[in-house]
Design goal:
By secondary structure, the protein is an alpha+beta fold. Among the domains are: 109 residues, Jelly Rolls, CATH 2.60.120; 30 residues, no CATH class. The protein is 20% helix and 27% strand. Strand 5 and strand 6 form a beta hairpin. This is Germin-like protein. One of its GO terms (cellular component) is apoplast. Keywords: Apoplast, Disulfide bond, Manganese, Metal-binding, Secreted, Signal. It is found in: Secreted, Extracellular space, Apoplast.
């Protein structure tokens, strides 16, 4: 009798926990973001358009200092990925284009080259070992979460890639901009980078920093 009661109790717990699982949590972008993601949109207001994003078909604008463009399909652009642990973006690199050293603190990245040639790599946090390779159409490369990595168009024509992430909001910090596109005093940048003041001020001028 005790065994039957135990089985029934476990079955009840299983059914109760299963019933509490939501199919999805489409982001309600009208409400503030939180560390656990956006609040869920009222299920009655969810439509198929929340699960479709058509923004990756167009070429990104690469007329900028890095000759590159990233078109994201993160939660803010694609509410349906909220809470699902996935997202994607399009990467366009003009000839000579580069995505400088950067990190995604919120997720790992998988890059798939669909046009052109891209040299990509990352730096490990142990011994600063570098892993890099020239990638061609159809090649993929993974970049572990939080590690510094880069992509460079190493071919003679435009390059295109799709990058997927293990988070709907992977985050982004570009090292050059973190150092030289803010108002951190020049003397502190000099002290922490071993560059001289003239170099720091030049880079601040190029990237829009002050101080």
């Amino acid at each position: 009798m005790l065994k039957i009661q135990t089985v029934l109790a476990l079955s009840f717990l299983f059914v109760a926990s299963y019933a509490s699982v939501q199919d999805f949590c489409v982001a309600d972008l009208s409400k503030p973001d939180t560390p656990s993601g956006f609040p869920c949109k009222d299920a009655k207001k969810v439509s198929v358009s929340d699960f479709v994003f058509a923004g990756l078909g167009g070429v990104g604008n690469t007329s900028n200092i890095i000759k590159a463009a990233v078109t994201p399909a993160f939660t803010a652009q694609f509410p349906g990925v909220n809470g699902l642990g996935i997202s994607i973006a399009r990467l366009d690199l003009a000839v000579g284009g580069v995505i400088p050293m950067h990190t995604h603190p919120g997720g790992s990245e998988l890059l798939l080259v669909i046009q052109g040639t891209i040299c990509a790599g990352f730096v490990s946090s142990s011994a600063n070992k570098v892993y890099f390779k020239t990638l061609n159409k159809g090649d993929i490369m993974v970049f572990p979460q939080g590690l510094l990595h880069f992509q460079i168009n190493s071919g003679k024509g435009p390059a295109i890639a799709f990058v997927s992430f293990s988070s709907p909001v992977p985050g982004l910090q570009i090292t050059d901009f973190a150092l030289f596109a803010n108002d951190l005093p020049t003397e502190l940048v000099v002290a922490t980078t071993f560059l001289d003041a003239a170099q720091v001020k030049k880079l601040k001028g190029v990237l829009g920093g002050s101080g």
